Amino acid sequence: MRLDRLVVDRHRSVARVRLSGEPLDEREAAELVAVAGDLAEDHSVRAVVVTSRGRNLCPGPASTLDALAFRPDPAAALAALRPPVVAACGGEVASVGLELALAADVRLADASARLSLPDVAEGRLPCWGGTQRLPRAVGPARAVTMLLLGAALDAPAALASGLVHQVVDVDDLDGAVDDLAGHLAGLAPLALELAKEAVWRGVELPMADGLRLEGDLNHLLQTTADRAEGLEAFFAKREPRFAGR
Fold first, then answer.
1. d(CA 111, CA 35)
2. Is it the case that residue 243 has pLDDT exceeding 60?
C-alpha cells in the first residue's frame, strides 16, 4: 500500500512508524494495519516505535472514521507484532490514540501528554481494545473512572498509575524512545518474543496454566541457536550475536 498519511523509516533493526498527529481517519488506520502486517513478516525488525510527526501522538478519531470496519483493527495489528513495540506519547493521546498506545508493550510520555478515553462520555464505546487493555494497565477502578467520566491523566498521573513507564521533558522524548528501542533491539529477539507471549497469554490463564505455559516456552527457547549463542558468549565473556534463530 502506498503511504499517504504515515511515514515509516528504519534505522538498523528499529522500525519507526510516524502517525500524522491529526485525528485518525480511515486512510491512516488502513495504512497502519498494512504497515503492521509488513513488519510482522520482517524478521530483521527487532523493535518498533510508534510516534507522531505532530505535537500529539493521536488526538482521537476523525469524524469519518468507522472504527468497527477494521478486522484486524490497528491496535490489534500492533499488539500482534513479534518484536517489542514502544509508544511515544506526547500531547493528546485520546480515544483511538490511547487504544493504539495501549497496544504497545512499553509507553514513554513527555510532560505535555494527556491520556484519555472520552468515548463513553461522547456516546460511544471504545472498540479497539480500550475496555480490556486499560484495566490491565491501570487496574479496574482507575479504568472505570477514565471510561465513565472521560477523565484525562496528565503525564505524572499516568506514570503513577502505571499507564506509562517513564516521563521525560518534551524535548527529550525522541531521544529517550530511540535509546530504549535501540537497547531492546540489541537483546535476544526470540527471548523477547516469548516473554511477550508468556505475559499476554498468561494474564488470560489460571496460575497453574500460566506456569505451565512459562515452562513450555522455556523448553522451546532451549532448542534455539540464540540460547546457545547466549551461553557461549557468557562463558567467553563477550557480547552475544543473536540471529533470531
1. 29
2. no
Do the beta carbons of residue 91 and residue 53 sit within 8 Å?
Answer: no
What is the per-residue pLDDT across 143-174, written as a single tens digit (0 to 9) for each? 999 999 999 999 999 999 999 999 999 999 99
Question: Which spans in 42-161 are helix H?
Answer: 74-79, 96-102, 130-138, 140-149, 155-161
The position carrying cell 498494512 is 34
Q: Residues with Cβ < 8 Å from 80, sequence gap 6 or more?
A: 36, 40, 72
- For residues 136-159, b (16+ Cβ closer than 10 Å) or e, as one string? ebbeeebbeebbeebebbebebbb
Q: Three-class SS of residue 153?
A: strand
In whole angstroms, give the CA distance from residue 35 to residue 45: 12
Rounded distance, CA 16 to CA 237, Å?
Answer: 32
* 107 contact partners, CB below 8 Å, separation of at least 6: 86, 87, 89, 101, 163, 164, 165
Going by C-alpha positions, the residue among 52, 57, 49, 110 that lies closest to residue 84 is 49
Per DSSP, 24 falls in state B
- Mean pLDDT throughout 125-144? 96
CB 81 within 8 A of CB 103: no
- The radius of gyration of the chain from alpha carbons, rounded to an integer in Å, stands at 18
- At 24-70, the pLDDT tens digits run 999 999 999 999 999 999 999 999 999 999 999 999 999 999 999 99
Q: Which three cell numbers stand for residue 18?
A: 510516524
